[in-house]
Design a protein that fits this description.
Largest sheet: 5 strands, antiparallel
Strand order of the largest sheet: 5-6-7-8-9
Structural class: alpha+beta
Number of domains: 3
Order of helices and strands: HEEEEHEEEEEEEHHHHEEEHHH
Shape: elongated
Radius of gyration: 35 Å
Distance between the termini: 80 Å
CATH class of the largest domain: Mainly Beta
Strand content: 15-25%
CATH architecture of the largest domain: Roll
Length: 326
């Protein structure tokens, strides 16, 4: 399953806002290598928000247990924002970045590249981060100011003129830089514009209207070609969902990491001992079978040895023996 798109993230934030804004954060837990659970106290009971930087964000209906020993990062974040009210949750422009405002702190969630979770103060000074990183134009370090990534055109607020100036080549590639490849193809299809040609002014206007119509689409999630979309694109639908949160919850299945269990370890040890013993017995049986086969192949020689041995014993003891050769 591919990471969520800007369109999908926009729908998830839209659905999550009324569920969590105004409620209090109870727990911040790391439940997997790069998966986090934020538990909120709401008037409808506890609601859990799953965050996997670079991959997904959604309110889950699954009961996911956290490890008994919390990670240092989760403890540091919980120490600062647990008990605080969530004042807002917003997508930054049309980027794959979400900001959760807790008043004294902001929790910034990045879903591009391998993702990140950054805690800042109200002035956007980094307090802590899941990944400390440095790029050519931005740095994520404690004590450093946080800078939002410089993305392309924000199609949610762009004017017709700004939108038209975006095209520096063919339609689909110019659009893809700002809304993603699948949605660029969908916009060209809706606008009836050739994707591999540079659009004229009339076609740019048609594309602008097509993108606006996609932004205004009601949330009606669908799985198509192994990718989730907040509304149906052209092509076959593999599965439909009632909400964006449900779509992500069911499609990005959470598999908890294996936790060490003493009982399981003891059973595995005993199983290993039994397997070793079985291997030993099988080897002994094979040895006995080989010896038996050898005796069968040399039956008359063995019988002759028995007779010779008996005669030699008789001579030595002076006993008479009777040999049955029938």
């Amino acid at each position: 399953m591919k990471p969520i798109s800007s369109f999908m993230l926009r729908s998830l934030v839209s659905e999550t806002r009324p569920l969590l804004v105004g409620t209090f954060l109870d727990k911040f837990q790391q439940v997997g290598k790069e998966t986090f659970k934020l538990s909120f106290r709401t008037k409808d009971g506890k609601k859990d928000l799953l965050i996997e930087p670079g991959v997904r964000l959604n309110v889950t209906t699954y009961n996911i247990e956290a490890p008994k020993t919390p990670s240092n990062f989760s403890l540091q974040i919980k120490k600062r924002i647990a008990g605080h009210k969530l004042l807002s949750i917003e997508q930054h422009r049309f980027d794959r970045v979400v900001t959760m405002d807790f008043g004294e702190y902001k929790l910034i969630l990045e879903f591009f590249s391998h993702g990140n979770i950054i805690l800042t103060d109200p002035k956007l000074t980094v307090v802590n981060a899941f990944r400390q990183e440095t790029w050519k134009d931005r740095e994520i370090r404690r004590g450093k100011p946080y800078a939002y990534p410089t993305g392309g055109l924000d199609v949610t607020t762009a004017t017709k003129e700004e939108f038209a100036n975006m095209f520096k080549g063919d339609a689909v590639h110019s659009l893809a830089k700002n809304i993603g490849g699948k949605y660029a193809e969908e916009a060209c299809s809706r606008a009836k514009v050739k994707p591999d040609a540079t659009p004229n002014e009339k076609e740019k206007d048609a594309l602008f209207k097509a993108v606006r119509s996609m932004l205004d689409e009601p949330i009606n999630p669908a799985l198509q070609d192994g990718e989730l979309h907040p509304f149906t694109l052209s092509g076959a639908v593999e599965k439909s969902f009632a909400s964006a949160n449900e779509a992500v919850d069911e499609s990005y299945l959470y598999v908890p990491e294996k936790q060490e269990n003493p009982r399981i370890g003891e059973l595995e040890r005993r199983l290993k001992e039994q397997e070793d013993a079985l291997t030993k017995f099988e080897k002994q049986a094979e040895d006995y079978r080989a010896k038996g086969d050898l005796i069968k192949q040399n039956y008359f020689a063995v019988e002759q040895l028995k007779v010779t041995g008996a005669l030699a014993g008789a001579r030595k003891s002076g006993r008479k023996i009777i040999i049955d050769l029938s």
